Every structure is written in C-alpha cells, then in structure tokens.
Amino acid sequence: MAKQLPKTDVVIVGVGWAGGIIAAELGKQGLKVIGLERGRERSIKDYTMVHDELRYGIRYELMQDLSKETVTFRNTLKEQALPMRQLGSFLLGEGLGGAGVHWNGHTFRFLPYDFEIKTQTIKKYGANKVKDLQIQDWGISYDQLEPYYDKYEKTAGIGGEENPFAGKRSNPYPNPPMKDTPLTDRFKKAAKNLKLHPYQMPSANMTKPYENPYGAKMSPCQYCGFCERFGCEYGAKADPTVAVIPFAKNTGNFEYRTYSNVTQILHDGKKATGVRYIDVQTNEEFEQPAEIVVVTSYVMNNARLLLNSKLGRPYDPNTGEGVIGKNYCYQILPGTTGFFEDEEFNTFMGAGALGATLDDFNGDNFDHSNLNFIHGGSITLNQSGYRAIQHNPVPSDVPSWGKEFKQASLKYFTRSINIGAQGASMPAKMNYLDLDPTYKDAYGQPLLRLTYDFTEQDKNLYDFIGKQTDKIMKEMGASKINDRKTLEHYDIVPYQTTHNTGGVIMGADPGTSAVNNYLQMWDAENVFVVGASAFPHNGGYNPTDTVGALAYRASEGIIKYSKQGGILV
C-alpha cells in the first residue's frame, strides 16, 4: 500500500537541465515544488582528481543500470524486440543533474528552418519533396523561441562566435569562444579554401570566470580532455547541479528527493492528481499528490511514463493515429577519419566543446532541388581530447586485432583526426516508441520498445554529407582517409550519439501532437512534458540548447497555468 504524502503545488519527474530550470523559475515565484530523481545526489566534490577513463568512459559510472531497466529494440514490426543488455548506441544518464553532468557542452540553436520545416519545404520545393516523411511544424517559430534561447545561454554561460547561417540573436553570447588550436585553425583554413564558412563552436565550457543570473559562479576551463561521460571537477562545464539547482533550493520552495523512481502519473482521465514512486533503496512506495505534474526525465523515459500511466493516445504505426511514441528520431553521423604520416598533433588535449563547425550543408542552407533528401547537418572538427582506451583508429587496410593493429594504433594515436557531422533525422511512420508486451523492469513495469531503422532519406543524406567531410579532410592534407561504409540498418550496439528525440512531440494541432508550445499536454491540461521528447524531428545539432529554451518556455506556461488554468494559447 503506497504511503500518501502531503499535497504540493508542483511535482517534477527528473531533475536535470529541464527539471532544474523549472524548479528555479517556479520556486522564485513562490510555488512549492518537489523534484523526484531516481538516481543519487551528485556535486563537484564527487569528481575531484577522478580522471578515470575505465570507470567513467568505459564502465559508465554515471549511466543507467540496465540490469534494472533498459529498452527493447527491433528494426521492423515483423521482428521480435530484444532487451539492450549493454549500453551502446546511446547512453542513458541517471542521477541528480541527469545528462547535464556528463555532456560535452556543445550548445547550438536549431535553425529557423527547423521550426517551420514542413511549411518552408513545401513552399520552396513542393509537396512531393516530403511525401514519404512524417514531418510537421513545431507550433512555435524561431523568433518566438529566441528570448528563451537567450535565457538558457546566459544560465549556462555559453561562449561562442557568430554563425553566418544562424537565426538573429537578441544578444551576443555571454562569453567569448574557446581557444583556437592548430587543428581548429587548420580546419577553418581548409574550409575557407573550399569557400565554406567555419566558426568556433558554441560551448558550455567556460572561457573565463563567469557568474550566471542565478548567482552561480563557474570557473574557466582547464582543457583537460575529460568532459564527455565525466563530471567536471572544476565547475568549468555548465552543469545543472552547479548552475540552477542550488538557486532553486535557496528559494526555500524546492525540495528534491533522490533514489525516487516514478512509476506512474496518477490521473482521473482528465487531469493528473499526482505521481506514484518507489524509493529504490527501501522499495517503499509513495503517492505524491500535486496540482501540476511536470515530466522532465530523458526522452525515452518521458514517453514510457506516459504510456505506463495510460495518459495520452498511444501512437499506432499502422494507421498513423495517436501521438505518444510518435516521431522517434535519432541522428545520422557521417564523417571522415584522416591519417597524417609525417605530422603529430596534441589530440590528447582538449575540451568537450572545443571545436570549429560549419553549416553550409545544414538545414536548407543549400539548394535541395536536385537532391533526394531534405535538411542536412553541421560539420565539425571537435578536439575533445582523445583518451587512451577508447581512441585507437587505424587505416581501414590494417587488421582490427593483433600485432599489426597494436603497432598502428600506437602510431596513429597522435597522427589521426576526425571530422564529424550531425545529420538531421526526419520522422518516418514506422519509427516509433511503445511498450514491450513481454519484458518488464525490476519493478514490474513494461519496458519501452524502440522500433527504428534508417530510411532512404537518411542514407541519401549520409552519403552526401560524407562526401563533404572527405573534401575538407583532403584539403587539410591527410595522407590517407578511411573508407566509409554505406549506411544500411541501424544497430543499437556501437555508440553513436545520445541525441534521441521525439515520442511526446509538440505542435499546434491536438490531432497530431501531444503537447502545445508551452509543453502542456492537450489531453491533460495540468501535465507538462519537457525535453527533446517534444522535438517533431531532430536537427543537425546537439539538442541541449533547444531543451533549455523549451524549459524556460514551459516555466512561463506553468506559472500562467497555476494562476488561470485551462489550455494555454
């Protein structure tokens, strides 16, 4: 029997970037907020002098325990989905701060094209260009979201320089860009020789001492190379446990509870009444009543919690009806590894978001009239710091094991570089999320089932962008470049990116979207679902800046709802 707790104004499920921002904004308005985080507490002191690649980079210290909860996967409806037993394609975080603790810090705004992708694509190229894609506009424009981008970038202390293809900014970045290195400088020169437009990547790694609007003080980056999969011991990487959660607590209106795994949103069919959660240390069950429920856990967990709570209309891929689980998207990752026989580089040094990027082939920044795909991707040389265990590229004509591999691995550790691309992922009817009918987690809840495979759109985009990264690498003077395999079927085993999106998408039409542009559910007006789960498609960038902007937008909506109720417009 679940223990009934006193009612609160707002309960938040998941305390990362989105949950932390919403707690801070609501707390300063006097709303009583409880945050439920199923992982443990974290702070900077946990990472002091812990540059342990084996523990964090290989054994995933900061990630979800798959022995208790995982996802099942299949490529098509005809296949039997099986559980992901080992973290691979993406890394599901856990603990206070969420993935905002172990991210690299890449902080791009989506392009204006992204938010009105269907309208703009049909207007320019005609309806046939999108006939096999399940794309839709977001129900908000870039100009409407821009002030919220500005708020998040000030909170996270983003440093960067102007991107010639970006939407208009109301303010410059609050910090200068990261340092140029011989490699980023070489990339920029090669790109310019090819008549392209490189710029320094926007970064959440501090470039100088910085104090954000919440009074959080962050230190300048040490360029140690331990960002991705690691917490920052210097407080030099914007992190919710540094940037927003302390302020939220200091309002006196926010309490967070760790080791609290929410298993169900309680509701009466029209509105939520609270949540049910389990203390994962004692297995005690609690019910936390609330006037407003805010779901800010990871993409997949957002969709799974709604499905397990029977809240919203599940998506049916056969009919295209329903919205929860719809438009799951990933990213397309072409790129080029180059080898330099007579040069060495200090590639073991770097920072998570130290790099140079270009957007000439992103969004609709180039003509797609004669191309068999839409959108594109950003192209980046990222000097994040190669680590000894995980980084061992060799030319494609070298065996992948044995003496020759070991010799080549040692030789090319400082003689190889990579140019990567983040290709946009467009939604397809048969790529979606639902509940697995067979497998359950440690608490008896059905696992989330992922049905996903690459489409012809994906394969064509991959091939096109890969040819562009090859050209730049050759212009940089590589002695040889690795052959790139063709994109075939998606495999959940090798790590690719943790930029999963969709499942609880936003829009202007309740028939085709789960939430409105305040991230408020159409089917339950006092439930707000915030995160990359709201993206109707995935763009050519990292999602965090857009997640942060949407969190500020949602905060505004929740405050309005607390005063007036009803569906917000």
Automatic annotation (TrEMBL):
Highest taxon of the lineage: Bacteria
Start and end residues of each Glucose-methanol-choline oxidoreductase C-terminal domain: 430-551
Keywords: FAD, Flavoprotein, Oxidoreductase
Molecular function as annotated in GO: flavin adenine dinucleotide binding; oxidoreductase activity, acting on CH-OH group of donors
Domain Glucose-methanol-choline oxidoreductase N-terminal: 212-328
Pfam families tied to this protein: GMC_oxred_C (PF05199), GMC_oxred_N (PF00732)
PANTHER family: LONG-CHAIN-ALCOHOL OXIDASE
Family (UniProt): Belongs to the GMC oxidoreductase family.
Name of the protein in question: GMC family oxidoreductase
Organism: Neobacillus cucumis
Lineage, highest ranks first: Bacteria, Bacillati, Bacillota, Bacilli, Bacillales
